[in-house]
């Protein structure tokens, strides 16, 4: 996310690129689980939930990002990055 942020992409392009990156990572993770034989009914159910969540998130994101000004988009992005970094730091320290 931080790497894409530095590129100053338009909000919709940023979101689409990030979604594509996450989708690629998810596909690699699922393929890895299949290769090592760690596929069970609960894992398949979680995978299906992830696919459905991805589709719903994409549609919801289209609605939300369409309404955000470029300035508000950057603010939301920076606040999310700060929240993520803070959470990671607190977890590491406790």
Structural description of this entry:
This protein is mostly helical. Helix content is 87%, strand content 0%. The chain contains four helices and no strands. The chain has helices spanning 2-6, 11-36, 41-67, 70-93. Helix 2 (11-36) runs antiparallel to helix 3 (41-67). The longest helix has 27 residues, at 41-67. The two termini are 25 Å apart. The model has no long low-confidence stretch (mean pLDDT 86).
Q: Strand tally, please?
A: 0
Q: Which structural category fits the helices and strands?
A: mainly alpha
Q: What proportion of the residues is helical, as a percent range?
A: over 70%
Note poorly predicted spans.
none
Instruction: Calculate Rg over CA atoms.
Output: 16 Å
Q: Helix and strand string, N-terminal first?
A: HHHH
Gross geometry: globular
Please outline the major beta sheet: none
The averaged pLDDT comes out at 86
Distance between the termini: 25 Å
Strand content: under 5%
Total of helices:
4
Brief description of this entry?
It is built from 4 helices and no strands. With 94 residues, the chain is mainly α.
Q: Keywords, please?
A:
single chain; 94 residues; mainly alpha; 4 helices; 0% strand
Write the layout of secondary structure elements.
Elements (H helix, E strand, L loop, with lengths): L1 H5 L4 H26 L4 H27 L2 H24 L1
Helix pairs in contact: 2-3
């Amino acid at each position: 996310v931080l790497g894409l942020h530095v590129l100053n992409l338009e909000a919709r392009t940023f979101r689409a690129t990030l979604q594509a990156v996450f989708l690629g990572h998810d596909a690699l993770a699922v393929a890895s689980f299949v290769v090592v034989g760690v596929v069970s009914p609960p894992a398949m159910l979680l995978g299906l939930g992830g696919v459905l969540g991805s589709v719903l998130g994409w549609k919801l994101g289209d609605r939300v990002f369409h309404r955000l000004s470029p300035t508000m988009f950057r603010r939301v992005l920076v606040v999310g990055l700060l929240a993520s970094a803070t959470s990671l730091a607190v977890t590491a320290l406790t």
